[in-house]
Design goal:
This protein has six helices and nine strands, in the order αββααβββββββααα. The protein is α/β, with parallel strands linked by helices and about 200 residues long. It has one domain: Collagenase (Catalytic Domain). Strands 2, 3, 4, 5, 6, 7 and 9 form a seven-stranded mixed beta sheet that branches. Strands 1-8 form a two-stranded parallel sheet. It is globular. The N terminus is likely disordered. The structure holds zinc ion. Zinc ion (ZN) binds next to helix 1 and helix 5. InterPro entries: MetalloPept_cat_dom_sf. Keywords: Signal. GO terms for molecular function: metallopeptidase activity.
């Protein structure tokens, strides 16, 4: 795979939060996160509309079987603040996916969480069909790119930040050419949640 041609893709809002916050050199997990990584995800109707249900199923299962503390199930109820998955379109040509974290503020309103200093209530994952289909990083097919983006964004919901670009990781911020968690990603996941 030609990593030299990878474009500046997979840009997430989380990246800007990353840039704004204090960050220990080399650390690729967020200090904050949901109270538990044994949790459920709710699929918005847009996921089925695009026919991406099995893709998100794979994205969830990709993070299973690594740590006994990490398992993302699927729920058809929006009660108890599950993570919520969406597929849509974006006018931002450099945006493939987006995985912000939310919390309740002192007034009980849902607001963006600080990924490093808050306990998150839930995350949303959005994958953008139009930009994914226009842009595949070196060597990946469109379907592999879709898997890369969904797995990457779901990784953010597990408190994984962006890996250094020198690492072989589905969590690098630009043009990830892996489409499932690598050994590096599995080690990072266990460093956050335990074995
Ligand atoms: Zn990202």
């Amino acid at each position: 795979m030609n990593r030299a041609i990878k474009p500046s893709l997979l840009v997430c809002l989380v990246l800007s939060l990353f840039a704004a916050g204090a960050w220990p050199a080399g650390a690729t997990t967020y200090w904050g996160g949901e109270a538990s990584a044994i949790k459920d995800a709710y699929y918005d109707g847009s996921v089925a509309s695009y026919g991406w249900g099995s893709i998100f199923d794979s994205g969830r299962s990709n993070w299973g079987g690594i740590s006994s503390k990490v398992s993302i199930g699927k729920t058809t109820s929006t009660a108890n603040y599950p993570d919520k998955y969406y597929v849509g379109q974006t006018s931002n040509a450099n945006l493939w996916g987006f995985a912000p974290a939310y919390k309740k503020d002192a007034n009980g309103n849902i607001v963006l969480a600080d990924v490093n200093y808050d306990t998150w209530l839930y995350c949303t994952v959005s994958a953008y069909e139009n930009t994914i289909k226009l842009n595949q990083p070196g060597g990946l097919t469109t379907s592999q790119t879709i898997s890369s983006v969904t797995t990457h964004e779901i990784g953010h919901t597990l408190s994984l930040g962006h890996s250094p670009s020198s690492e072989t990781s589905v969590m690098v911020s630009a043009g990830a050419t892996n489409f499932s968690p690598t050994n590096y990603d599995k080690t990072e996941l266990k460093s956050k949640w335990g074995n």
